[in-house]
Amino acid sequence: MRTPARHSHASRWGIATAFALALAIATPATAQAALLAPDVPIPASTVLVGGGELPWQAATVEVTSAEEVRAARAAEIEAARQAQVASRAEALRGEGARVSEAGTTVSPVDPGSYRISSTYGPRTPPCSGCSSFHNGLDFAAPLGTPIRAVQAGVVEHVGYGDWGTHSGGIVVLRHADGTATSYNHMSSAGIYVSSGQQVQVGEVIAGVGNEGYSTGPHLHFSVYLPDGSTTEPLSWLAARGVTP
């Protein structure tokens, strides 16, 4: 006669054997893996209860949410900056309309707000990479000082570094007689016009910058004749009644 303990042990052995055989019959590979797999406890944090969420899924949601918040904040900052630039440009355009009443040609930088730091022609390069022949006139002035269109015209080109890293931000205006004037070294945020835009004499088109090959904040102003050659800006301005 079997004792209760032996009967219990035999019953458990019989159930386990039957379960293993059932697995082997149904899915041999799966059953073998189940029998041979080490007894590794499953962390409680990874167990789904009632459709719960795995820890790494929750982490992914949190990271994505943080990235979205940062992206939204960056977009808000950029939109605010663009609005500020547009507002400033609009205010300065109104001021330019008032200045344009004085004549058909004006100084690119208001008198009293600058000093001439480099003239047209041969020179000792002031910095590594600077040219030994200066094809423009430099107006040294504080950052953001208004830069004006010297004559009415059309914005032919707006760029940043596309004429070489030495130039920084660039605006080129084409005037009625075919002459072009270029304004250089602005930051991208310091350019207030776009290609194809009509501008009036004296209209503020940019703010003085310090980009590219530069030894300090200044406007590099060049005059290009219709054949593409440069000419001495001081003489060109003086011939039109402007003495920087």
UniProtKB/TrEMBL annotation:
CDD domains given in the database record: M23_peptidase
Segment forming the signal sequence: 1-33
Annotated protein name in UniProt: Peptidase M23-like protein
UniProt cross-references to SUPFAM superfamilies, sorted A to Z: Duplicated hybrid motif (SSF51261)
Region entry Disordered, spans: 92-111
Ranges for domain M23ase beta-sheet core: 133-225
Organism name: Serinibacter salmoneus
Gene3D superfamilies: Glucose Permease (Domain IIA)
A GO molecular-function annotation: metalloendopeptidase activity
Superkingdom to which the source organism belongs: Bacteria
